[in-house]
Amino acid sequence: MKLRNLTAALLSILTIGLASCNRDRQLLDTVPADAAMVMVLDAERLTGYMNGKAYGGQLNADQVIDRFLVKATARSRNEIKTLLTSDAIDRHSIVGFSAKGDSHSVVASIEKGDFFYTFDIKDAVRLTADLDAGSPTSIDGYDAYQLEGATLFIKDKQGWIAWGDPAVAARKLDSQIDIASNTAISSVDGISRFLYSGNGVLLSAMSMELTGEPGWICTTADIDDAGKQLLVNADYLDRSGKKAQMDKYLKDIDTDMLSFTTPSDMFVMAIGIKQDTDWEGLFNYISAIYPLDARKRGALALALPYLKRIDGTLLIAAGATADNRLSRSNFSSDLNFVVAVKVAKNQAKTTLKDFAGVASLTGIPMIEKDGTYILQARGMSPVTMKIVDGSTVVIANRSLEQLGNDSAAKVMKGNSFALWTNIPEETAETMYGGRGFKLTMTLDGNFQSTFSFNGSSAPLLEQLATSISDNTDERPVEMNDADNTLGFTPLDTIR
């Protein structure tokens, strides 16, 4: 994800919140059960983690927020900071939801649906003064205040933020509240328990109804107690809150293949794939989540015959050569890698020949000897393609007899999918001009991920905010910069 996209995504997250479960009128009672997505945030908890000084950093929460919002207009910056920090609202209780859109895919339904934020108001006079919102206009029983690019609606000590023409937005809001009065998300026991749990900074529930397997992908994002690491967990929950397996097409990674990895690897990814995987059904499921255009469908159709041959683990690992840590601006010749995939034994030779045929189309000189293919391009290490142990097709530009990578192996063990990445600070600067980082992802029934920066002991959010401000010019965004505005624009700013 580009840094600019990450900025927009984070700013979208910053304005979403958590409903409290001990109130007579709960905010989730006003969110319809058919919402495409509901996201909730404990803003007080978030701003606590933004206070870098509390975790050994140099910046306080106000300074961190300013760096996150460096591209925002002065008005947008004030509005977002008010919602994150003002005691005029219940900062534990801000809810965001996307109304069900008219689409055939989960992601498109979220993108096309109307988005609303709602929260309890303790002091409306103070809130509107802090927002510099001016005098209200009465629209359909709401006090409506104009924000930058959005409207704040207030009724009965509850606030909503919506987009578009205020009169149209008010009608759409009333429609969503009417739907919720019949069946609210709070009535869906399993999902409401999750959203009310308060187990993280950010909680989200994404409806999977359009996939034909009703349920919700429920994600929790939090910061560790030291303020240095982002933690993300996800489960697939049905209406009762029962967890369903997220890896039904997968099996455990064959850890013996990790002997192909090396301590200098910076990226290791492995996935265990069942031979009887219903690939057509899986592709249909994916397209129900994210729309696939003709080009993507064509690419999947070409890959399908090869995917059906897989019967075990696919491993990809890459890193620097032992004598050169990617310190040069042109580092392609210093990168070594291995790609290994276990296929059905009776398909191994055919698969290797097919790979060799594709490689020959590149024009790179290639020789074949005793069933092994070797590609040699000027200035690059030879790439070898061969069969190992009768059924594992390997493509590599390094020896397969390695010491392994203990850190990656710990992440891979017992999982059906795992990713381990560790990019040193100096390498990151050479490769893409950014910060070094550590990233892990695992899947074993549920999904778990961790992220932290390398090269500094500063807190995570302080480092992220500093990275954003360091890579941004100081020109504030104006309202006519539609593609870049970081006001209250929600999902459409995430590109």
Can you characterise this structure?
By secondary structure, the chain is α+β, with helices and mostly antiparallel strands. It has 2 domains: about 5-245 and about 455-495, no CATH class; about 255-430, no CATH class. Helix content is about 30%, strand content about 25%. The chain has 14 helices and 21 strands. The protein has a 21-stranded antiparallel sheet that branches. Strand 9 and strand 10 (about 230-235) form a beta hairpin. Helix 2 packs across helix 3 and helix 3 crosses helix 14 (about 460-470). The longest helix has 17 residues, at about 165-180. The radius of gyration is 25 Å and the shape is globular. It starts with a helix and ends in a 25-residue tail after the last helix.
What characteristic shape results from the CA principal axes?
Answer: globular
Number of helices: 14
Low-confidence stretches: 1-24, 474-495
Q: Helix fraction?
A: 25-40%
- Summarize model confidence as the mean pLDDT: 86
Structural class: alpha+beta
Beta-strand content estimate: 25-35%
Determine Rg (CA atoms, Å).
25 Å
- Biggest β-sheet strands, sense, barrel: 21 strands, antiparallel
Number of domains: 2
From the N-terminal CA to the C-terminal CA, the straight-line distance is 9 Å
Number of DSSP strand runs:
21
